[in-house]
Amino acid sequence: MGSIRNLTPRQEVRREKILSATRKLVASQGFDGMVMSDVAEAACVSPTTLYNLYNTKDELLLEALRGLVVKNYEKVGQRFGVGSWRYLLGVVENGAWLRSAEPEYGEAITDALLRAKPGDPLTQLLFENVRQDFAYSLKQMKLRGELAGGVDPQHLAVILLGNYWGTFLLLNKGIEKSRRLIHSANINLLSVLIASTCGEVKKEMSDHILELRRWQREELKSD
Questions:
Q1: Could you tell me if residue 55 is inside a domain?
Q2: Could you give phi then psi for residue 16, rounded to 5 degrees?
Q3: CATH number reported for the structural domain that contains residue 97 in this entry
Q4: Between 1 and 197, where is the model more confident?
Q5: Separation in Å, CA 33 to CA 15, 20, 52, 93, 121
Q6: Which of 23, 67, 75, 108 is 20 to 30 A (C-alpha) from 151?
Q7: Residues 6 or more apart whose Cβ sits within 8 Å of residue 197
Q8: Does residue 52 belong to any structural domain of this protein?
Q9: Is residue 29 part of a domain?
Q10: What are the φ and ψ backbone dihedral angles of 175, each rounded to 5 degrees?
Q11: What is the pLDDT of residues 34-85, one digit of tens each?
């Protein structure tokens, strides 16, 4: 993806309008149906202004998505700090919240991701970058003696990544429900982590998942 130059305050306002319009159009038309000229019109900017910032539709989609991802990580990092199971849970929880808050956009992104090839920028942003972030936190947990003996942080990060995106895929296919997505994503992550940890953190996670499962049982009764 091309780099964005330093922008003036006025240019930054235009950029945010463009990214907001992009997310709305992707949600309503899908990535394949989104047209750059429609984005310019919806954002009230000229096509020239749009192309001065983004050369292609792929670049525009990635920047719109990157903004959501960065905000997600900033919120979690400020709340929990990096390198703990609560940070991992926070990443998953905020990701699920974003997916629920913008369901049409999230569905379009999931569809685009399923068609993406290995090494594509979208794959890098949503798979590889998340895997690396998970792996870093798991390495910190291992250094503190919180992972069970023989657990490989890199391999566990791949498992957690599949666990994380598997929940979104189930929602995309109508098997999971949006209203319980956050709790389901949390329970799925904790179920894997509990089996891979030891000591006090294992107890903390076990207590936390019990509370989540109580809520889940109540939700199932109301279905």
A1: no
A2: -65, -35
A3: 1.10.357
A4: 197
A5: 21, 16, 22, 30, 19
A6: 75
A7: 85, 141, 146, 147, 148, 205
A8: no
A9: no
A10: -85, -45
A11: 889 999 999 999 999 898 888 888 888 888 888 777 777 777 777 777 789 9
Q: Give residue 131's domain range.
A: 65-222
Does the pLDDT value for residue 17 go beyond 60?
Answer: yes
The two tokens of residue 196 are 């891979």
Q: CA-CA distance, 183 to 190, in Å (whole number)?
A: 11
Q: What is the pTM of this model?
A: 0.80
For residue 156, give every residue at least 6 positions away whose Cβ sits within 8 Å of its Cβ, in sequence order, or none: 134, 138, 147, 192, 196
Average pLDDT value for residue range 25-37: 83
SS3 22: helix
Q: How many residues does the chain have?
A: 223
Q: For residues 106 and 173, give the distance between their C-alpha atoms in angstroms, rounded to a whole number.
A: 12
Residue with tokens 């207590």: 207
Structure tokens given for 6: 């330093």
Is there a domain that residue 210 lies in?
yes
The per-residue pLDDT for 38 is 93
Q: pLDDT digit string (tens) for 172-206?
A: 888 988 888 998 999 999 999 999 999 999 999 99
136 φ/ψ sector (left φ>0, alpha ψ -120 to 50, else beta):
alpha
Q: What does the pLDDT read at residue 191?
A: 95
| Residue 37, Cβ density class (10 Å: 0-12 exposed, 13-18 middle, ≥19 buried) | exposed
